[in-house]
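Students often ask why inverse folding is considered easier than folding. One informal answer: many sequences map to the same fold, so there is more than one right answer. In these notes we will look at a single instance of the problem. The structure comes first.
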């Protein structure tokens, strides 16, 4: 998840450091670099990334008490819905300068390479560590995880997730990137093809229910959240600016909808994203921006930091799920996991991107056909 002409850092995703930031780092290498976005728009998106990441960390912290707490709201889990809408929003500009008249294969491969370099290295590292230290189980199913293919979690069979539980969202992200890349092959019709394809998949899943893991994932209504993000990007590109009061109303209404789960979460997440884009114009909250920059690292690393944080909470004496203990445990998990995630962002995630780009360029030179003299 990232940014462009504003100063933002890499963060994707499920969790992403957006396409615009990546293009800023390698402007000379991008086939179709995204157009620079305005600072207010990016600020709102970065703040939302931070909030969504913290929501998810807080939601997962409840497992300290051994399972779902009585009366626990699923509000925190809806941070994923926000991330999916944001993903559609920031990926759409990646093809803004796509030239339908030029050779499409190099442009498509460039798009996929940039997304892979941004998302995969840190995820694969976290996935390998999760298999070794969190689930403590390696089998052939791990190959499906590295290939971004869905399967049941190796220890918690009720969930469709890789060894690193939050990685299920990365599988959706990669699937969306593939669909987006395939639609680019249709040139000027790419957005219509993308919308028709994703809509047809969801409709097929509704009309033809199946217990197949692949069918359930690749026809999930969650795909529409990416598509909604693309639509919000279109409205923004056309210069539609909402009054601040209306944006704040959308933001508040969206969060209330996510908390009450009274409507499909995609609509509520869309209201939150649309509201944040316009409501945060002119705001400057450096702490939220920093967390937004590091949100991909926070998202992928928080379960690892939960292990020592849990030991700390038990040592302090937060064992029974009373109101005070629940509040203290969640606050400690969110605070310390965020600090750890920011450290991962600076120490591992940021250095990995240029290193991966360099390795990819070296590989390209090795496999590229010789230029005739």
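Output (designed amino acids):
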């Amino acid at each position: 998840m990232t940014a462009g002409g504003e100063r933002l850092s890499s963060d994707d995703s499920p969790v992403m450091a957006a396409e615009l930031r990546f293009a800023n780092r390698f402007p000379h290498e991008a086939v179709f670099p995204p157009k620079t976005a305005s600072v207010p728009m990016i600020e709102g998106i970065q703040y939302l990334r931070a909030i969504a990441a913290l929501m998810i960390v807080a939601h997962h912290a409840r497992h300290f008490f051994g399972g779902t707490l009585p009366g626990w709201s699923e509000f925190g889990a809806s941070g994923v819905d926000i991330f999916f809408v944001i993903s559609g929003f920031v990926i759409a500009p990646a093809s803004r300068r796509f030239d339908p008249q030029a050779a499409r294969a190099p442009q498509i491969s460039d798009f996929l390479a940039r997304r892979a370099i941004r998302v995969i290295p840190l995820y694969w590292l976290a996935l390998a560590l999760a298999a070794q230290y969190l689930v403590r189980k390696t089998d052939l199913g791990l190959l499906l995880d590295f290939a971004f293919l869905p399967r049941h979690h190796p220890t918690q069979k009720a969930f469709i997730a890789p060894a690193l539980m939050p990685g299920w969202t990365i599988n959706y992200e990669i699937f969306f990137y593939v669909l987006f890349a395939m639609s680019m092959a249709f040139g000027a019709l790419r957005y219509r093809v993308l919308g028709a394809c994703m809509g047809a998949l969801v409709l097929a899943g509704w009309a033809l229910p199946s217990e197949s893991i692949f069918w359930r994932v690749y026809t999930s209504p969650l795909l529409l959240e990416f598509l909604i993000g693309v639509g919000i990007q279109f409205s923004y590109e056309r210069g539609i600016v909402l009054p601040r009061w209306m944006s704040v109303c959308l933001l508040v209404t969206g969060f209330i909808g996510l908390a009450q789960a009274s409507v499909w979460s995609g609509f509520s997440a869309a209201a939150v994203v649309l509201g944040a884009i316009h409501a945060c114009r002119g705001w400057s909250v450096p702490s939220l921006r920093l967390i937004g920059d590091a949100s991909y690292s926070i998202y992928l690393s928080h379960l690892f930091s939960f292990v020592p944080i849990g030991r700390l909470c038990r040592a302090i004496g937060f064992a029974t799920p009373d109101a005070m203990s629940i509040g203290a445990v969640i606050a400690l998990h969110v605070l310390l996991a965020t600090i750890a995630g920011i450290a991962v962002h600076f120490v591992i995630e940021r250095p990995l991107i240029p290193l991966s780009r360099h390795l990819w360029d070296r590989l390209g030179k090795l496999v590229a056909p010789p230029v005739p003299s």
